[in-house]
Amino acid sequence: xxxxxxxxxxxxxxxxxxxxxxxxxxxxxxxxxxxxxxxxxxxxxxxxxxxxxxxxxxxxxxxxxxxxxxxxxxxxxxxxxxxxxxxxxxxxxxxxxxxxxxxxxxxxxxxxxxxxxxxxxxxxxxxxxxxxxxxxxxxxxxxxxxxxxxxxxxxxxxxxxxxxxxxxxxxxxxxxxxxxxxxxxxxxxxxxxxxxxxxxxxxxxxxxxxxxxxxxxxxxxxxxxxxxxxxxxxxxxxxxxxxxxxxxxxxxxxxxxxxxxxxxxxxxxxxxxxxxxxxxxxxxxxxxxxxxxxxxxxxxxxxxxxxxxxxxxxxxxxxxxxxxxxxxxxxxxxxxxxxxxxxxxxxxxxxxxxxxxxxxxxxxxxxxxxxxxxxxxxxxxxxxxxxxxxxxxxxxxxxxxxxxxxxxxxxxxxxxxxxxxxxxxxxxxxxxxxxxxxxxxxxxxxxxxxxxxxxxxxxxxxxxxxxxxxxxxxxxxxxxx
Length: 481
Known about the structure:
By secondary structure, this protein is of the alpha+beta class. The chain is built from 17 helices and 15 strands.
């Protein structure tokens, strides 16, 4: 094997002046890419420092050898070698190859002498590993996105200025348009006519919140859909990615739930009506039947007492007086129970005087400071409204006595336009409303739920505000039909 030529021999042979070599090194050492000068046989005449760094060899080890020897470890050019191709085309030739863990972009440019003949070549090797990794990461990301878009049950569209550029398989299955049929169509063609203006405005304005619309299939059938879009960059273009979900089942479930709630409201209203009727019946029976019986007993005791001898023992006289007192007390208790169940004055005189009477009794019994305010409530509302308001006030005041430890109470009754408004406030200890009405423990909130249900049946609004140490406020608004 021939002995490898020295630097001096190569320079003398190629007759490169020392000044030219100095300029060559100064210029090319400033380049980050690996650059070398080749002779006609592909041997390296000169190289810059970047090539020494890339190959991890000194210039003495590099000069006089070929690229295929240094990079591939072969004694002849590899398949597709750009040096070989350049000799045939006399034009720049390139090749991208992977060596160990690095990606290299190799280019070879011809050097033409004064006579127009090929005299050598400039060989540039660029390390494009980072770029290739970025490209691979982008490719993997696109593949993951495509995999996700194909795996999802949502229809996904990519559009530009309202025109479809791409769709996923779920969209084809959902609407019936193949990809070739979908591309180029306006996005509103997937929407029922009555919702097209809204959807187009959302698409062009960049609206990104979910909304509902009626979707239109290829066969003309429609279904309820939830739509959400987002602007993003795709293949260098500003596009809108839209996800569309068929919410037919959800709508059916919502409708079933709504119907169920309506049935429950109806049953609840019937139950409350029946309960009020039963309260009225029992109240009347207690007042009329039991009250009259106890009155008769008291009269009979008085009559018997008059017929008895005057020389009765003190014990007998005491027993007669005690029996008379017990009958009178029982009569009073029955009268109170009758009023509690259903005060007859609510039907006879109406809500305003009944509440005034009830609050007077409540004030005497509890010793609380009770204020009663009336604002524009001269005209009587319907019996149903009167009953609900009375029961709400009754339940709220009972809760205050049991739990609030309050010192004062305010009850305000006001007519607002076409509504009856009730406001009840106390200065008690308050409570955590969310905790009190927790779904897993409603024992303490049955009374509140009962109030809320009564108000809801009449189409009203019920709200309660409370916090520990700051009392409780109940607001009710009921339409006046």
